[in-house]
Each structure stands twice: as C-alpha cells, then as structure tokens.
Amino acid sequence: MLAERSCVYNILISLMESKEEELKGLGADFIFGFVQSVDGERDPRNLLLAFQVARNIIHRGYDLGKFVEELFEVMSCYFPIDFSPPPSDPHRITQEELVLSLRAVLTGTSQFAAFLLPLIIEKLDSDIQSAKVDSLQTLAACGLTYSHKELAEFLPGLWSSIRREVFQTASERVESAGLSALSALVSCLSRSVLSSDSEDVLQVFLSLVLKGTCKWWIQASKDVLYVVIWI
To answer: 229: pLDDT confidence band, cut at 50, 70 and 90?
Structure first.
C-alpha cells in the first residue's frame, strides 16, 4: 500500500508538470479524487509528496469548486505536525520539513481562512509548546496571504489567544512567536488600509491590543506593589 500510494503521488506530480491543462480541465473532480487518495495517509514520505501535490493545486490555480473544505480537512488533520523520526531512519525526513510543507498548503489560499483561523485558536489552547509555536508561526504566515476581509471576524479571538501567549507564557520561543504573529496581523491590516476602505478594522484591532496591554500593565503593577508592601 505504501509503494502504491507513493506511485500515485509521483504520477500526479509528473502529470502536473506535463499535462496541467488537461488536469485543470477535470475541474473539481480532480480535487475530489486527490482528497480521496490522501485520506488516511500516515507515512511521512508519502505525506511530503501529498503536500507537494496540494501546494501545486493551490498555487497553480486549480479550481477547488465545492471541495474547498474537504481539501482543507484532509490536510489540516495533520496540524500541528507531531513527528519524531526513528534514530536509524534512512530517509532522514525531519519534523521541520513536514511542518513547513504543510504550512505552505494551509496558508497558501485565503479560501481556507474560515477553517484555518478557528483551528489555530483551538490549537493555541494546547499544553504542548511546539504546537503553540507552530500555530503562531502559521498565523504569521497567514498575514502574507490574507486581507482584512478574511481576518476581521476572528480578530478578537486571535488577539485573546496571542495576548495570553505573550503575557502569560514562561517560554521565550512562544513569546517570540506570539509577537511575530501580532506584527504580521498588524502589517496585513495596514496593507489593507492602503488598498481598500478597511481603516475601521485596523482601528478596532489596535484598540483591542491597547486595552489588553493596559489591563496587563495595571495588573502587573498591582502585583508588584503588593509584593513590595508584603516585604
């Protein structure tokens, strides 16, 4: 089964190079067939190939049709990547390879925004540090693809999660990833202001950030004052 699936993915990659117009002519049927072929895939070698096919689909303008959510679901079930290669692995596949390859798929189109952003908020509740970092780095990557339209609905939830990770974490990696994600969101909203009538969205988000930051500083100051008085 492993070899058969590997063969299928490699054939698809080859056809996407040599017969792209014919594949695009199949429309959403091609997407549905690919989704079915990937479902249940577990081997990391095959996953890298499957992610490559998905990236090609997204970045080369294939018509996802009514299977946008199905393609997202079959890819996002691996997010965040949790992979530890065996010590004697001859293929030398790393977790970082899988993480970056999957991230390029999930953040490659704004059509995934309505599914990906709630998933990121959910995964930020994880107790696993690597999952938090991956989620925040994925959110930062979204800032390069999305506009204010995709972000607007989820900004309160995103800020609530980012604020918690920046102000309440003991991990420098998580804090740094949180600040990078925040910067990416602000940059995305700022670009949208220059190209469209979206100033209100930026102002609302900055107000959320300022209010949340002020509350944290006030509480932190009270805590410090309490400690000083107690001493």
So the answer is: very low
Residues 6+ apart with CB under 8 A from 221: none
Q: Please state the pTM of the whole predicted model.
A: 0.88
Within this chain, do residues 150 and 72 fall inside the same structural domain, yes or no? no
Measured between alpha carbons, how far is 56 from 40 in angstroms, rounded to an integer? 20
119 and 230 part of one domain: yes
Which residue range(s) make up the domain with 45? 1-106
In this prediction, residue 83 carries a pLDDT of 87
Residues 101 and 115 in one domain: no
- Give the CA distances from residue 206 to residues 32, 108, 137, in Å, rounded to whole numbers and listed in that order: 41, 26, 20
Q: Which of 147, 127, 225 lies closest to 189, judged by CA?
A: 147
For residue 43, the model assigns a pLDDT of 92
3-state secondary structure labels for all residues of 150-212: HHHHHHHHHHHHHHHHHHHCCCHHHHHHHHHHHHHHHHHHHHHHHHCCCHHHHHHHHHHHHHH
Confidence of residue 220 (pLDDT cuts 50, 70, 90): very low
